[in-house]
Amino acid sequence: MKIATIGTGSIVDAILSAINELEDVKVTAMYSRKRETAQELAGKYGVSTIYTDLESLLSDQNVDLVYIASPNSMHYEQAYQALQHGKHVVCEKPFTSTLQEAETLIALAKEKNLLLFEAISNIHLPNIKIIEEQLPKLGAIKLIQCNYSQYSRKYNDLLAGQTPNVFNPEFSGGALMDINIYNLHLVMSLFGSPNTVSYTANQHANGIDTSGVVVLKYPEFIAECVGAKDTNGMNFVLIQGEKGYLQVVGGANGCREIKLQIGKEPSEEYSAQNKANWLYYEWEVFRDIYLAKNYKRCYELLQHSRSVMNVLAEARKNAGIIFAADADK
Fold this sequence. Notes:
This protein is an alpha/beta fold. The two termini are 34 Å apart. The chain has 10 helices and 14 strands. The protein has 2 domains: 2-118, Rossmann fold (3-Layer(aba) Sandwich); 123-280 and 309-328, Dihydrodipicolinate Reductase, domain 2 (2-Layer Sandwich). The longest helix is centred in the last third of the chain and has 25 residues, at 295-319. The mean pLDDT is 97.
């Protein structure tokens, strides 16, 4: 599987490090608007070709799959172009800015018989399987609490009067799309789509959410998802049932350790993850699906991503958060 990357941020560095550990995967090209921006990263990982023209990269016959890690608002257009050029695509989270964009990409991928993935790492972690296996021990689920809060250095820029991409409605930024999305993916991968969605957010003067609380109402339980880029917090997931509770230590992003408490029995601890770079696991999944040409599994994952995009759209609407991309739909 020969990969080209779009973007040169820290997430691309981490992804390239993970890919380096995988067999049958090679990064053959990188795209950046300025060559010098990509040179250090390309040199670090031995990537031979740097493009400053996107059309040239998408026309490269030595590229099977394009990994997109550009600002959120650019995901749709770049993924659309890559699919039109017959390339498989892995698009960084959030998948797109709007539900309609997601549906258009999914339809195009199926029409062209191409693989399309959202790069949301936590749903592919081995510890997710442990959670699934332990859930029945909890009895009837009643409450879920998630907190993923991480003070952003870009928040200081926002307070200073600047508008970094991650806090810009023009670039589809905000805490919901950037950080609370991990909570939503985890909860929905375990329990599916909720009946109702509400979002109460702390919003900057430009309308973007810097932190907030999403409440997902299911028939038998309530899930509360907190995401913040303006404060730090104690990151965790807590799933409470009538017979006990399950804690995801460190929160939904890395799912580093699982603790199970049933009644007054001794607590149990689990972890099936031995990779320091947990991004390895999602790329192992993408590689295996690619090599097996397992379109059925790919499209199951796409349906999940579509469902999460639908919840994100409902949450934004509920909080009155409007992106520039909304005007085009």
